[in-house]
Design a protein that fits this description.
Elements (H helix, E strand, L loop, with lengths): L6 E5 L4 H12 L3 E6 L2 H15 L4 E5 L5 H15 L4 E4 L9 H23 L8 E6 L12 H24 L3 E8 L5 H4 L12 H8 L6 H13 L7 E5 L2 E4 L8
Parallel strand pairs: 1-2, 1-4, 2-3, 4-5, 5-6, 6-7
Antiparallel strand pairs: 7-8
Helix pairs in contact: 1-8, 3-4, 4-5
């Protein structure tokens, strides 16, 4: 998929991985709608992007992925402004074992909500153009991060949802590919505060620290892999593991009866 003229929506676009995703999509010719609740950070980012790419290439909408009303309105505004929707980068997420219900609400329920509402505009069966949805999962979605059981559960859920939706889309003719991006530790605000957000598992901070010592990605490395999942039209139902100096498309057992 060539990105010139394509319309992308990025959730959690203000900082970290979301910011890097936004920038790499713009660099490759897409128009990008930035969804986030962090007004200050996104407005600052948009000012910088406007200078580099022009005001017409981006749109910022304050949007909480926990709100169906706000997400619906954001997609409607996207279509009204740019004429359609081709790419969704479902990236918003948190890590906070003390607020486990909110973690599930944003990391898993929010991903499903945003994907389903995007389908209303992308699905070829209902007049959409098709496209691709990439959900940000994690290394913790492929194996347990023992100090973060709820975060681990949500990211396993994201991978399972992604793979099932990829198969459902192919079988139904939606014309939409679904992939999951699974980075290890990434140098972001979430990463820098992880030891303060372990809740009842704070006694396992030393174990988490040992994981961190194995290497940390920068956000541009993650965004480059996101670009691969978006542009390579052979990729559907993939979970791409990204760790320092290595990336790997995961294989899973085949479901048999």
């Amino acid at each position: 998929m060539a990105l010139n003229g394509k319309i992308a929506v990025v959730t959690g676009a203000a900082l970290g991985i979301g910011k890097a995703i936004t920038e790499i999509l713009l660099q490759n010719g897409a128009k990008v709608v930035l969804l986030d609740v962090n007004d200050t950070a996104v407005k600052s980012l948009k000012e910088a992007l406007d200078k580099q790419y022009g005001q017409e290439r981006t749109l910022f909408l304050n949007c909480d992925v926990e709100s169906e009303e706000q997400v619906k309105a954001a997609f409607q505004k996207t279509v009204e402004t740019f004429g359609g929707l081709d790419i969704l980068c479902n990236n918003a997420g948190i890590l906070n074992e003390s607020e486990w219900e909110k973690t599930v609400s944003i990391n898993l329920v929010g991903v499903i909500r945003v994907a389903y509402l995007a389908l209303e505009h992308m699905n070829k069966l209902t007049g959409g153009r098709g496209g691709v949805i990439v959900n940000t999962a994690s290394l913790a979605g492929l194996g347990p991060l023992l100090s973060c059981p709820v975060y681990t559960a949500t990211k396993h859920g994201v991978i399972g949802f992604t793979r099932a939706m990829a198969a459902a889309s192919a079988a139904s003719g939606y014309g939409i590919r679904f992939n999951a991006l699974c980075p290890g530790f990434v140098q972001t605000d979430l990463f820098s505060t992880i030891l303060d957000r372990l809740g009842q598992f704070s006694h396992l901070a030393d174990v988490t620290q040992k994981y961190k010592e194995k290497g940390v990605l920068n956000v541009s490395e993650v965004a480059q892999c996101l670009l691969e999942l978006v542009t390579d039209e052979t990729k559907n139902g993939e979970a791409l593991l990204v760790v320092p100096n290595r990336k790997k498309y995961m294989t899973f057992p085949t479901l048999t009866w």
